[in-house]
Amino acid sequence: MTELTGGPSLPQERRVVTAIPGPKSLELQARRTAAVAGGVGSVLPVFTVRAGGGVIEDVDGNSLIDFGSGIAVTSVGSSAEAVVRRASAQLADFTHTCFMVTPYEGYVEVCEQLAELTPGDHAKKSALFNSGAEAVENAVKIARAYTKRQAVVVFDHGYHGRTNLTMALTAKNMPYKHGFGPFAPEVYRVPVAYGYRWPTGPENCAEEAAAQAIDMISKQVGADNVAAIIIEPVLGEGGFIEPAKGFLPRIAQFAKDNGIVFVADEIQSGFCRTGQWFACEDEGIVPDLITTAKGIAGGLPLAAVTGRAEIMDAAHPGGLGGTYGGNPVACAAALGAIETMRELDLNAKARRIEEVMKGRLAALQEKHGIIGDVRGRGAMIAIELVEPGTKTPNAAAAGALAKACHAEGLLVLTCGTYGNVLRFLPPLVIGEDLLNEGLDIIEAALERI
Ligand SMILES: *Cc1c(COP(=O)(O)O)cnc(C)c1O
Predict the structure, then answer these.
(1) Residue 71 domain-assigned?
(2) How far apart are CA 209 and CA 325, in angstroms?
(3) pLDDT tens, residue by residue, 392-407
(4) What is the residue with the minimal CA distance to atom 8 of ligand 1?
(5) pLDDT recorded at residue 7
(6) Residue 136 CB less than 6 A away from ligand 1
(7) What's the pLDDT tens digit per position in 333-388?
(8) Minimum-distance ligand 1 atom for the alpha carbon of 130
(9) pTM for the predicted model, two decimal places
């Protein structure tokens, strides 16, 4: 069991000993409100002292079941043994030199691992950065340098970050973009195959959505002006939307036919989250570039762009980089996280989580008209909440359900363009008992609301 729980001293149990948040968290929350900018939110203001395996322990002695993984980051747990060991050793050796000043092996080794793990057997290279948004920005820089074109195509419900260019790429106004414009130009948004909400139903969704997207690109932008098409193989913040089968291959083929760089943004869906190393493998897609972050380094800030060597080499020497990009401690952590994923076969764990969750959530859908859709893959599962008997988004129910779960010591997150999706992203190392206990809490909360 020790190897599954990360921090071995942390009991893998739910424990609720105060109101949530408890008195110590409320005290800290008052200090936080005075000192931290109001624009930075928190889903649940309980202050963490320890976390690992499937639990988060707070300052009041509560232990919460974690169905969030710090937004799909701590797939290997928040204190995985190999991550702690390797990052600690690196910390003691040196914290930073700047890879652009004097390089170090860890950075190279992470790039070698990325070449091995990402889809396709072509020659690949990588560049490392600090955050997902930074990786996406750099993918655009690289695609523009390679194609000598400017336009970037993104999709309805897409999320790619909060920097200026990635705000432009992100679909949803509130809270990500509102009041923060003007946004970067040459960004075009087209429909995605969202089966549950496709006007003519899910059957023809892939074909119709692809035809509409391709028509818009061809007629409104001009395919030969497009540098990159960027898509999340499972759309994360937009509501865990799996594009209807057939859509991604059509778009990837269109990109290929027109010399457009096809970028899979796997920042949320990558690294075993969906039961495969990368979600695009599900339909055999081989992206030209792939962006990764979140799950890559067990919680340390690291991100990457990986892709075809000839595309990755298109930017002039010195054109890519950043002071901290590929920090040695973050690289050591990534190597520890990847080691953990391989050793514990976390792809298999993610598929098992899907089996348990989808089985129980499908049964709940039969009973509760407010669950319009159960979807997702691996340990990236969601329920979309609606007004019973309709598809009208029910954000109030999602909020109420999340709140009810939090009060019982289960951390869940919401998402979705309409704010009506409850998403579940447990660490892949969570014990099955905790997983089922979490589902029990969701079931009871559904009965109550
Ligand atoms: C989280 C996320 C990003 C942005 O990553 P940050 O590290 O928060 O900048 C980009 N794309 C996707 C798909 C994401 O889920």
Answers:
(1) no
(2) 37
(3) 999 999 999 999 999 9
(4) 132
(5) 62
(6) yes
(7) 999 999 999 999 999 999 999 999 999 999 999 999 999 999 999 999 999 999 99
(8) 7
(9) 0.97
Ligand 1, atom 15: nearest CA belongs to which residue? 268
Q: Is the CB of 428 under 6 A from ligand 1?
A: no
Distance CA 416, CA 152 (A): 23
Buried/exposed 119-133: b ≥16 CB within 10 Å, e otherwise: bbeeebbbbbbbbbb
DSSP bridge partners of 292 = 304
Pair (354, 312) in one structural domain: no
Q: Do you find a cis peptide bond into 175, omega within 30 degrees of 0?
A: yes
Expressed in angstroms and rounded, the spacing between residue 160 Cα and the centre of ligand 1 is 5
- The atom number, within ligand 1, closest to the CA of 232 reads 13
- Which residue has tokens 């036919």? 257
Q: CB within 8 A of 253, min separation 6: which ones?
A: none
Å from CA of 369 to ligand 1 middle: 32
> Which domain-ending residue is among 309, 343, 377?
343
269 lines ligand 1 (CB under 6 A): no
Q: Helices 81-93 and 328-343: crossing angle, nearest 10°?
A: 160
Please identify, among 343, 364, 384, the residue that sits at the C-terminal boundary of a domain.
343
The reply to whether ligand 1 has any atom less than 6 angstroms from the CB of 336 is no
| Same domain flag for 47 and 144 | no
**What residue numbers bound the domain in which 235 lies?**
83-343
Smallest CA separation from ligand 1 atom 6, residue: 132
Average pLDDT, the chain: 97
Question: The domain spanning residue 374 has which CATH number?
Answer: 3.90.1150.10
